[in-house]
Amino acid sequence: ALEPRPDGSQGRRGGAPQVATAIRRAQAECAPSCVTVLVDGGDMFQGTAASNLAYGRPVAQFYNALDFAAGALGNHEFDWGQDTLRARMRELRHAVLGANVTNADGSPVPWLRADTIVERGGVRIGIVGTAPEYTPRVTMASNVANLRFLPPAPVINARARALRTRGATVVIVAAHDGGFCDTRGPAPSCSGEVFDVARGITEKVDALVSGHTHSLLNTVANGIPIVQARSSGRAIAVLDLPLASDGTVSGAARGSVRDVDSDTIPADPQIDALVRQATASLAGRVNQRIGELREPMLRRGDEFALGRLIADAQRAAGKADFAVMNNGGIRADVQAGPVTYGALFEVQPFGNVLYRVTASGAALRAYFERMYNGARAPRVHVSGIALVWDNARPAGQRLVEARLPNGQPLDDARDYTLVLSDFMLTGGDGLGLGDAARRVTPLNIQDLDALIAHVRAMPGGVIATDETPRLRYPRP
Hints:
Helices cover 26% and strands 26% of the residues. It is an alpha/beta fold. Helix 1 (16-28) packs antiparallel against helix 8, helix 3 (57-66) packs antiparallel against helix 8 and helix 10 (305-318) packs across helix 14. The two termini are 33 Å apart.
């Protein structure tokens, strides 16, 4: 996110100029008695309109100005296809690393590096980067159909050995896998893919830079310090590694995750000029008023009014019986007051195209059943239907109610229409319909355009919020 954004009641956070200042301040704290290396946890280009409408070019300029050493290959690096990703990689001075990514036949990807060694103040630092093994489920499947994503830990072990053989005295992993830590008890309890990766590492790794879950991580797992600095430039992670005279890590790391308070941190002039240039030509479009919101629409909990609004907009665009919107595609809150094109763009920045699918009630019942597995909450919003699950029933029989707005139950024997994005249609989040679809019709409408049209159609342009839950299930 190139520009600062509100962070609840905490004021504004982030903004590339403020992030740059925070980084440069951290670098100066121990100079000249330390060396510093900048590493990114992945998902580098996907952000606010100034980045997305330029396919990430301004973000590449930001990284180059700060002299980053390496970044992990995130799933969102593939959002605009491999050709655009490769174009950004050619512009970057630092390496984008995907050690666990191969061609579908297992051969190396010629344009993708596994690791790198950088020298800082005479210290040789090896960096290996990995992408999520589950990338095909969380990005457009067609954009990675020719690639395989291997389990990261065995690959990290092999690369760490190779890096030390090549003379690296410090080894850092940038893994676009994440997790969460619960600090409410006497001892932190952490879980998630990055901790599974850490437990599988048997070689000496000195630090792990995490990503993907937009969470705060500052902990140790399997003896490896792990950090993650939230998302969107709202924070930076600083990890101090004490070095012996031979350049090897000689003691315990000290980590911190520092909020980037853009109301108090001054803008870095160089990066501020870059951002002003990137945003100037878009101002008329981004600031265009679309509607009005009386109360903020926040992404809180598993089901929320903003998700219902988006699902309703997609159902209306397709003139369909139902719609399903994945929570992972809802990327920002909407604040009270005038709602602009830019604000809605940040909510739905991916440019997914909508499709209307025709399927039997029986097929849709099985589809709705798969939304809840008894272990975690459904990660979707729905329109045109209310669903109830019972965890006491066996798998495959947990959906006990599927009711239309008129109170009628879903009829297994008749056909219905359902609107899905191309991401969902092709199996994103594991919720594709596959052969169960009798007919698939492209609407040639992007999800953002559907949302804008839906808001503009509301009386007086005032956005109506629906606070009534449409999904009922036992809380895991």
